[in-house]
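Q: Protein A?
A:
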Amino acid sequence: MKLFDTLSEYGHEQIVFWSEPELGYRGIIAIHDSTLGPALGGTRFWNYASDDEAITDVLRLSHGMTYKAAIAGVSLGGGKSVIIGNNRTRDREMIFRAHGRAVESLGGRYITAEDVGTSVDDMEFVRMETDSVVGVYGGSGDPSPVTAFGVYQGIRASAERQFGSASLEGRHILVQGLGNVGYHLCGFLHEEGARLTVTDIDEGRISRVRDDFGAAVVGPDEIYGIEADIFAPCALGSVINDDTLKVLRVKVVAGGANNQLAHARNGEELHQRGILYAPDYVINAGGLINVYGELHDWTSERSKRKAGEIFGTLLRIFALAADEGVPTAVAADRIAEERIQRVRHLHRSYV
């Protein structure tokens, strides 16, 4: 990987590598853009196949956080961090305290939170070394319920646009990934009367959703080919790709996972096939809103109400995409970039 060429391609301001091998810590922090405010993004703990894979992931995720913050209307920039290793390890304190020191080295330019493979308990270890962490006990805590509520509202907006009604009663919805966000999302969908077909690689998660919400269960690779109304990816990224598009049989893609499109051309193909795509960084912004609320002492109800605005934001994106004849992802990017440029102009006004 030509690192500086890659940084230029994504438009990043800074990337930090931090290693404390005696503690089992190898971390990367990426700050994409701090125009709107300090960069905020969670810490992902994952057993990457290579360092290049980890770098690519942190760059893509932090880029997405900039756009997520911009379109959610909060005063934050985009950042992300990854820890390379086995996220099932029980020996976590020193790993996350080392990560806290890496975060602290940035002097408040980056604020972290939990993400895939990490928990509120892990963030408590981070807090031993830095104040630049949110989603801790006594704060907003687990952002998953608010994230799931925002995704639920985004699915309702997608149904409104594609089917003419926001009601999900009787709609067949495929949910991929039954972690915290996926589980809470299934709860919202079940309560409204949707018919659920789900998948995950964890049998415990599958059993919980099947028992609690009466969901049908299929294998991880089967989910893509099932005929349904809506596909809600809530696991890892790049699930909408050249291979899965060959078998996808839904009218809407709207879920909580980050970086759902493997390539920009996959968003174009969804557009050409008439499959409505809810851009991931728009529909899953509830977690960001939740921790932003913690920074500003919002009540949980205020954060949830703000996440509910995802419904209207997506309708505006869908309308713009239809008016201009472009994929929804392109329309969302334009709205986010416009806000960043306007704030950048304000900054120049005060120089």
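Q: Protein B?
A:
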Amino acid sequence: MKVWLLFLLTALMPVHANPLYTEVPDSPEPTKIYLIYLHGRIIENFGPRPTDPRFGLYDYPAILETLSSRGAVVISAQRPAKTDINQYAGIVVSQIEKLIERGVSPDNIVVVGFSKGGGIATRVSSFLRRPQVRFVLLAACPGGSAAPHISLTGQVLSVYEESDTLAASCKPLAEQSEQLRSFKEIKISTGKLHGAFYMPLPVWTNPVLDWVQGVGG
């Protein structure tokens, strides 16, 4: 990641925030949870705190801070513009394999993806095929029929916003995924459309953090 972006992300973080990584650390702590966050498309084009005229401010640094607030080690990097979702899914698969090679249990690895990042996460789940790895899909599934070439594996939590016109339930995708270990879905109702996930609202971050930490199933 570019030095200026890392500096900006650091400058926008409160001093009490846990360390954030853009790559897999060389010496991970096996007892910690490692959370890979994959942001939405707008960050590719406009940087870490863009504003969409429909959905408002996307506060990427604040989301990373919140995801790390219960002790998870967060790995997240700004993708280049026009990133190919299949190719980037391959990068994330490599990151997961590095974590495992360096001593982290697959049970302690979670991939969280929003919007385009969620589309990448579905492909990581389909490509990886490690049943212990967990995935959180945030507004990741467009309405209509599921992509026939995607077959989720592992343990999956889906969260979508009732008013969202760009994404809907991931149940059709889950139903076609024969190797899926578990699937849970939460519908939230904020009235904020796709922008419900632009800020770390407790209505979605609390259940996601509970699930990451193994609270409440």
